[in-house]
Design brief:
By secondary structure, this protein is an alpha+beta fold. Strands 1, 2, 3, 4, 5, 6, 7, 8 and 9 form a nine-stranded mixed β-sheet that branches. The protein has one domain: Aminopeptidase (3-Layer(aba) Sandwich). The two termini are 26 Å apart.
């Protein structure tokens, strides 16, 4: 189902499908390189694109990932998850704890009575930034998570994303340095929000 978000701006938000994966991958690269350059070194961005940033097709299969489309071009994406994995694309080799030996524990389903749903992989094309796309996708994610019985949400924010999530009620905790390569890390901020009933 396609939901028109703003006819004046001219984009639509819909559920992603697997045929969108190559276009989503390209959008993530454009977004990360264009909107993260003031916060991260180019080496960090390029290494992050090998796994920490990327398409997670499990979200698409679960029906919890959305794309914003304008004139048949993807200009934004983002989703939520009822599984353990907190961030990263298909090529990310470990689970959310950073334990490379954790295997398939990322795919475990969460218990809405005690766990937080995950907000995942939000990226917007630089030319479409600050037009309400990420906010509209996030609203849909929060509504779906609430409908599934979740009482809270958590995410791993990039440095450019902190202001966006903070403005929408997410609170950050201590920064974490995620290893990308030998002698190279990237700083993320775990964030959380309690959903209103």
């Amino acid at each position: 189902m396609i939901a028109r978000t703003d006819s004046k701006i001219g984009y639509e938000i819909r559920k992603a499908n697997l045929t969108d994966a190559p276009a989503i991958e390209e959008l993530i690269k454009i977004s990360a390189r264009g909107l993260s350059a003031e916060d991260y070194a180019s080496e960090q961005i390029e290494e992050a694109l090998k796994g920490a940033f990327g398409v997670d097709t499990a979200l698409i299969r679960d029906g919890t990932y959305f794309v914003a489309e304008a004139d048949e071009t993807l200009v934004g994406c983002g989703g939520w998850s009822y599984r353990k994995k907190l961030f990263g694309g298909d090529s990310r080799p470990s689970d959310s704890s950073g334990d490379p030996g954790a295997g398939d524990s990322d795919a475990l389903e969460l218990d809405p009575r005690k766990d937080s749903a995950k907000i995942r992989a939000f990226f917007v094309h630089p030319l479409w930034a600050r037009k309400g796309i990420a906010r509209a996708i996030l609203a849909r994610c929060e509504a779906e998570a609430r409908a599934k019985g979740f009482k809270s949400l958590e995410l791993m924010a990039t440095l450019p994303g902190i202001r966006f999530y903070s403005a929408l009620g997410y609170e950050g905790s201590e920064p974490t340095n995620y290893p990308l390569a030998p002698d190279l890390t990237i700083k993320f901020i775990p964030m959380r929000k309690t959903l209103k009933s």
